[in-house]
Specification:
It is a single chain. This protein has a two-stranded antiparallel sheet with strand order 1-2. It has one domain. It has ten helices and two strands. It is about 65% helix and about 5% strand. It is globular, with a radius of gyration of 21 Å.
Length: about 260
């Protein structure tokens, strides 16, 4: 039996449901979209210090570590299949992506607002090396753009699923395919994110802490995602693992699409 859309089944609640859905999508654009944009800006110019607690250097680093783990916990918990299954009662399946975007954006804004900046410079580049590192940052942004474009149905803010739901369209099934940068590396989004994180011309103590913690978290998340992908696609993904590197694209076109 086909599942029915409760909006079309109950016309009296249609207007209210549409309004609440568009409010949720707008909130996702504000919190998720704006926070991501600011995060990219701050990666380029350096992490902000909007709220300075006036603490000593060691205590500030403890606060920054706590902020990192707070964001890691929220992001890693909500992206797991177990949490999605547990929350499927109060949150409809089509709305999981948008709520993930809203909460991730909210925690990312908290992270950036309370980050305690250090004035201690560990490494600072100049001359040709300065411009080389700056160019790597913009290469990473272009790489992210082409990676997301190759995914075609990539729904960063969770909006597309809600629109499909409101239009009473069934979600397309998940299938395995390899396009664009995925021919060179299995996780190009993580690779380009790491490149953006480390493409910094002035590395302070707090930035070095940020780089280290976020690198460990991204690599750990990559292994966890690999486990989920093997569970979903089986031998097809294992064959992909054998041919294509996980994070560092060190082979020349290792994957040739049949």
């Amino acid at each position: 039996m086909d599942k029915k859309n409760p909006i079309t089944e109950n016309p009296s609640s249609m207007t209210k449901s549409y309004m609440s859905s568009y409010v949720i999508m707008a909130l996702s654009g504000l919190t998720g979209g704006i926070s991501l944009f600011l995060f990219v800006v701050f990666l380029y110019v350096g992490l902000p210090s909007l709220i300075d607690f006036g603490l000593d250097a060691h205590t500030s680093l403890y606060i920054n570590t706590l902020l990192c783990f707070l964001f890691f916990l929220q992001h890693s918990l909500m992206i797991r299949k177990g949490f999605r299954k547990w929350s499927s009662g109060p949150i409809p399946q089509n709305y999981h992506g948008v709520f993930f975007s809203i909460f991730s954006g909210f925690f990312l804004l908290i992270f950036m607002s309370f980050w305690q900046k250090s004035t201690s410079i560990q490494v600072e580049f100049a001359g040709m090396l300065y411009w080389f590192i700056r160019s790597l940052f913009f290469i990473a942004i272009l790489g992210l753009f082409f990676t997301i474009r190759s995914l075609r149905r990539f729904d960063l803010l969770g909006i597309r699923d809600i629109i499909s739901f409101l239009r009473d369209k069934n979600a397309k099934g998940v299938f395995f395919t390899v396009r664009g940068p995925y021919r060179w590396v299995r996780h190009p989004i993580y690779f380009f994110c790491l490149l953006m994180i480390w493409a910094q011309v002035s590395v302070t103590t707090d930035r070095l802490l940020f780089n280290g913690l976020w690198t460990v978290w991204i690599i750990t998340g990559t292994f966890l995602e690999e486990r989920d992908l093997v569970a979903s696609f089986g031998d097809v993904y294992r064959n992909y693992q054998r041919k294509v590197p996980m994070l560092i694209p060190y082979k020349w076109l290792p994957w040739k699409q049949n």
